Amino acid sequence: MTGPNDGTVNGHNNGHIKKPTEEAFTDNNVAIAPNDPEEVPALLKRIALHGEAYLTENDELERTKILESARALVYALETPREANIRHCWSQGCSSLYAAIEIGVDLDLFTALSRDDKPKSAAELAMATGVSQVMLARVLKHLAAMGVIKETGPDEYRRTGFSISMQSPRYSDAYPCMTGCITAGVLALPAYFKATNYMLPNDGTKCAFQRGFDTNLHFFDFLKQHPQHASEFNNHMSAYHQGRPSWMDLGFYPVHTLV
Fold this sequence. Notes:
The chain is mostly helical. It has 3 domains: 37-78; 95-166, Winged helix-like DNA-binding domain superfamily/Winged helix DNA-binding domain (Arc Repressor Mutant, subunit A, Orthogonal Bundle), CATH 1.10.10; 169-240, no CATH class. The chain has 17 helices and 3 strands. It has a 3-stranded antiparallel sheet with strand order 1-3-2. Helix 5 (95-105) crosses helix 8 (132-144), helix 7 (121-128) crosses helix 8 and helix 11 packs across helix 16 (226-240). The chain starts with 19 loop residues before the first helix and ends with a helix. GO terms for molecular function: protein dimerization activity. Residues 1-20 are annotated as: Disordered. This is O-methyltransferase dimerisation domain-containing protein. Residues 98-160 form the O-methyltransferase dimerisation domain. It comes from Aspergillus violaceofuscus (strain CBS 115571).
């Protein structure tokens, strides 16, 4: 039995169009080789250099330089296949995000972070009132992603991140994204495809409206959903923390342009 003479099995391609680049890609070994191995030695030297300076001077700028170099090192060593899995499963708009939001909703991070003592999955299940089997799976993923620290079999300890998640100023970011951001972001590919990749110029005709099935502008949407508005406000407060304000002297010409 043969399919139709159009390059598909059953006449349908689920919206996927075969592109010339797909025909050109022939070496699958590229997907399982490091992205940029030539950069590794220089990045290691850079990390060591800034690390020494940070330990000596405790300079915030040096800390950010170490962080940037460390991330670049991960990207250089990571294979395309590993990056693909990270984007789609471990760290993208998927399992890690969901696990953190579940933890926020259950007050899991509060139960874990009251003190530095390790706590078992059974203790945390009792504190949150949910299934130990379910929670144990969430805890495993949170530990694998560095959100909390695994200290033994089904035993966990707080981190700086989990301590911060006790405060709505930081933890509200997760329900905020689910309630008023993420669906709009995920709608971007379909939105741009439908508009022939034109730059949007109307705040009521964007990917946001497509994602959340609304005709409202983003801020009008928040007016109708005060809980999300409060969460968004907390998230913006955390985003601004430690960063210069547009009103700071020399940052933006407020007096001449506003």
